[in-house]
Amino acid sequence: TKRPRRDHDAAIIHACQLKESSSEEQKKSLFIIDALHLEPMAIISKTGVESNALAHPRSIQQAVIDPTSLETINAGKRTFYALDETKNSCGHCCVQNPVELQQLICDSPFRSLLESRSFVELTTPLCALLNKDWLMHPQMKHATARLLAGAVLLNASNGHGIMMNTIEVY
User: What is the helix, strand, coil percentage profile of the chain, to 5?
Assistant: First the structure.
């Protein structure tokens, strides 16, 4: 008898070894796999046991047309210093910038610089601080310059941004 095969999402969950993970974690993984344009493929053993792997649709198509044996590709050893200094190999340690800013960073010609920095949105108290009258509080021009140096002003409606490299106080 033929065993029923996994559906699309179940095959991805199986390939990523996420069966015991929370549904939220599974949904995030499905989104990431979809964004990477990967598709699941079934690998059926001689005994009929199904395993799943992820690949680009063209790779799957080629494997189905010309089935050959499967081999693993082991990651080569790398020293810590061989890793790109702006990127971390651990996904849990990566800097998480606001979602609105991530697309701007990806499209920027200064991507490597921006990815090495962490950004936060201005909080309501910081906005209130920036809106103080500089005539009544002359020290605010120095605090404002310090706060906004290196900032990226982002227009969320159209995705355009301005990077402030330096600010001079007069």
Answer: 35, 10, 50
